[in-house]
Target: ADP-ribose pyrophosphatase YjhB (NUDIX family)
Amino acid sequence: MTTVPVDTVPRRPLLAVSGAIFRKTELLVVRRARPPGQHLFSLPGGKVEYGEALTEALHREVAEETGLSIEIVALAGWREVLPGPKHPGHYLIMTFAARWHAGEPQLNEELDAFRWIAPGELTTLAHTDGLPAMVADAAKLLGL
Model:
């Protein structure tokens, strides 16, 4: 497992966004190619830039990481990741329920795999902490 040197991690919480993106009833999951979360399946997303609205950040991150166009439906929830042995950073991740709008995944260098899966399949994949519960909340918002 690759680790991030502690001295390169900001000493304050970072705000991030992620998208539980559904195409009909299938969920897009992506596998991280580098820390934090290297080799784990998660949702597309990333850090919010200064002055950027959360929804703008999610559209940008999804386009950068996957090339997809999405429709953001609603905030599904949030998750706080505290510094620990797996990762030295402190993150507040705002997760949105979203629908696929257009495109096929074209991954950038931050990701090394993707899958469209039934949400119940998450338990068969190595995934980031809290992912199944967040996906379940997003699916409810979408009526799935």
User: Anything to note?
Assistant: Residues 54-66 form the longest helix (13 residues). The CA atoms of residues 53 and 59 lie 10 Å apart. The chain has a mean pLDDT of 93.
